[in-house]
Design brief:
It is built from three helices and six strands. The protein is α+β, with helices and mostly antiparallel strands and about 170 residues long. The longest helix is centred in the N-terminal third of the chain and has 38 residues.
Length: about 170
């Protein structure tokens, strides 16, 4: 039997200590590996795939989603542009002026209606009523000005429409 204080004994003790430390290190690493695998199982689910392949799959899916969102945004912008163009042609300004065109007892029965779009263009419709007749006139308006000379009532209808004042009754 050898003495533990001899060179062979010291080497044996040192080898045993290194072995014990190696076993402890292996147990610690095995526990950490178990935690990593549990976390990997949470991320990957039941699939047998490594994290690199999973990350590559996620990257591909993200790029496909990004392309879809870009395409959808482009389609939405096109639809918004088309809607804005249609809205520019819609009636944006309107007014109604009622008046007595003949100055007699027929009352305030005549009207001038201005219907203008966002570019201040459109039409003015005038209905001149008398006891035994009625006349309707339509005049084109471009940029807030009549293409033909507007009557004072038609001019007032255009002005009220552009001011946003709506309608007014007056005796003329």
């Amino acid at each position: 039997m050898h003495d533990l204080t001899s060179t062979a004994g010291i080497v044996a003790i040192a080898a045993g200590a290194v072995g014990v430390l190696a076993v402890i290190g292996c147990v610690i690493l095995a526990l950490k590996l178990r935690r990593v695998r549990a976390a990997q199982h949470m991320v990957l689910g039941g699939r047998r795939q490594d994290l690199v392949a999973h990350a590559a799959s996620l990257q591909q899916q993200f790029e496909a989603l990004s392309a879809y969102v870009d395409e959808a945004a482009q389609r939405m912008n096109e639809r918004i542009d088309a809607a804005e163009q249609r809205l520019d042609g819609a009636v944006a300004y309107h007014s109604l002026v009622r008046y007595n065109a003949w100055g007699d007892t027929s009352g305030i029965q005549s009207t001038s209606i201005a219907l203008l779009d966002a570019t201040r263009s459109g039409i003015v419709l005038s209905s001149i009523l008398h006891r035994d007749q009625a006349r309707v006139y339509a005049k084109q308006v471009r940029g807030g000005q009549g293409e033909l000379e507007l009557s004072p009532e038609e001019d007032e209808a255009v002005r009220l429409a552009l001011e946003g004042n709506g309608s007014r009754a007056a005796s003329a």
